[in-house]
Design goal:
The complex is a heterodimer of chains A (164) and B (186).
Chain A (H helix, E strand, L loop, with lengths): L2 H24 L4 H18 L9 H15 L6 H6 L13 H16 L3 H11 L4 H8 L3 H19 L3
Chain B lengths: L3 H9 L8 H39 L5 H30 L6 H44 L2 H36 L4
Classes of the chains: A mainly alpha (164), B mainly alpha (186).
């Protein structure tokens, strides 16, 4: 493997889980579609790797590519896809309340899916624990506006997950 | 009541999603295959252009003005349509996925708006000119070809036109849907 491939593998290994989680959020837990989107994201990372100039952190850069790849993937939701979704949600918890957690995750996916595409991206990044300033850089929205939006979406989401 | 931090915790503790060696190898294979496909695509395109130009040079010796008009309209409309498609592809590839999401969405909306004009104006005109060119050639085909072959050409062209129109219709519908979704207010 050449040096580009070695760097690429390192980037892939370090970033795959977060890219995949973001894609799962976008596809309402559709594992197959999320894998396709994650693959698409890393293909673009490879194609643009030489143009990456540390202006933003590598992680921010990859999140941008991932969010944009998911945004560009606009498709009609088919009935059979709806059945396929949320089919592979599991939590890494061996205790008795694992099922409760899975139920809550299913509900969380459903609630995220009710949001607009931009709000979806914002809250998925927030769920990943990114600083709001970084979210604002990824989304191209002013920091203040992001803060307000996150506050609003958090309330909506918490309410929706608990069916209030 | 669980708060947002609780949801965040559950989100981050979803079942282990980790990168695997197999996953990376398959990705690398895919990356290389895309690069090869692009090279093959360029070769096919160059060959098509060479064949079309050679064909035009070959038929330019043919003295019939009707034939030249018919074939000229057909090839001309095809070349213009291909050129616009290539231009669109170039425009699409220029859109940077590493821009911030707002800029990216704006660029994508501009691209699909441009495609709308291609679909509503250029494509129908190109299909119409292509059909006119074909109709001009029909009397020549009838005079020079056997009856069976003439009927075959006539039927296959109708089938081709129907299949092509359905394909175009689906593509247009899909791209317009994308534009509509992009223009939805957040």
């Amino acid at each position: 493997m050449g040096s580009k491939e070695i760097t690429y593998q390192k980037i892939y290994e370090e970033n795959y889980p977060k890219v995949m989680r973001l894609c799962m959020g976008y596809t309402v837990g559709n594992d197959a579609l999320a894998k396709d989107l994650a693959q698409e994201t890393f293909i673009k990372v490879w194609q643009n790797l030489e143009g990456f100039r540390n202006e933003s952190g590598l992680s921010t850069w990859i999140y941008r590519i991932c969010v944009n790849t998911c945004l560009a993937e606009i498709r009609r939701e088919r009935k059979k896809d709806r059945n396929l979704q949320i089919d592979s949600l599991q939590v890494s918890d061996a205790s008795d309340n694992a099922t409760d957690k899975e139920d809550m995750l299913v509900q969380l996916y459903k609630c995220i899916n009710k949001l607009s595409s931009t709000n979806k991206a914002i809250i998925l990044l927030e769920l990943e624990g990114l600083p709001q300033l970084e979210i604002s850089e990824i989304m191209g929205i002013k920091h203040e506006a992001v803060r307000t939006r996150i506050h609003r979406i958090k309330q909506q989401l918490t309410k929706c997950v608990h069916n209030e | 009541m669980n708060n947002f931090e609780d949801l965040q915790n559950k989100w981050q503790n979803q079942s282990e999603i980790s990168a695997t060696e197999d996953g990376f190898q398959s990705l690398l294979k895919n990356v290389k295959s895309i690069e090869n496909k692009q090279k093959t695509g360029n070769i096919v395109l160059t060959l098509t252009i060479i064949i079309l130009v050679s064909f035009l040079i070959y038929v330019s010796g043919y003295k019939s003005a009707t034939f030249m008009l018919g074939i000229g309209l057909m090839i001309g409309s095809l070349v213009i349509r291909i050129a616009i498609e290539l231009f669109s592809l170039k425009k699409l590839r220029k859109i940077s996925f590493s821009e911030d999401a707002s800029t990216f969405k704006e660029d994508l909306t501009t691209y699909y708006s441009f495609r709308k004009y291609t679909h509503y104006l250029v494509t129908p005109v190109a299909v119409f000119i292509y059909t006119v060119g074909f109709i001009i050639l029909l009397p020549l085909f009838k005079a020079t070809l056997s009856n069976g072959f003439y009927i075959y050409i006539l039927c296959s062209s109708v089938v081709f036109l129907v299949v092509f129109s359905v394909f175009l219709y689906k593509q247009v519908k899909y791209e317009l849907f994308k534009l509509k979704q992009l223009q939805l207010r957040d």
